[in-house]
Amino acid sequence: MRKRVLTTIGTVGLLLMCAGCGKAGEFYEKGQESVKTGDYENALLYFSQAVEENPNKAEYYLEQGYSLAALGRYEEARKSLSSAVVERDLELTRKNNKRAWRAIGITYTKKGSTSRPSPILIRLWKKAFCRN
Predict the structure, then answer these.
(1) How many structural domains compose the chain?
(2) What is the DSSP letter of 37?
(3) What is the CATH number of the domain that holds 115?
(4) What is the pLDDT of residues 14-58, one digit of tens each?
(5) Greatest CA span in the chain, whole angstroms?
(6) Residue 117 domain boundaries
């Protein structure tokens, strides 16, 4: 009996977790479709909804940041891209961190950017380019 209750609780918990991931994933896919057609306004809306549904997925912040940058909203893009950076020594995390730091650096070089990177940011950016 106890085993059945624990199994049921575990199954319900897993279903609840997956339900949120599915919705965020759907928003992410719709955002990707919008990017393919060059519709960055809608892409931004979808990626923002994905972030809201699942704030633990770096890819959602990266795409949100890329969309903001494509719209010329560089300050907001840096904030979103910075949210994607995580300090974990996993291959996927390192790849995402590199993508985020590169994009952050690019936003500083775009016309219309009003701020300059700090020396700390420059060191971290170089670190991202030097890692495998």
Answers:
(1) 1
(2) T
(3) 1.25.40.10
(4) 444 444 458 999 999 999 999 999 999 999 999 999 999 999 999
(5) 66
(6) 2-130
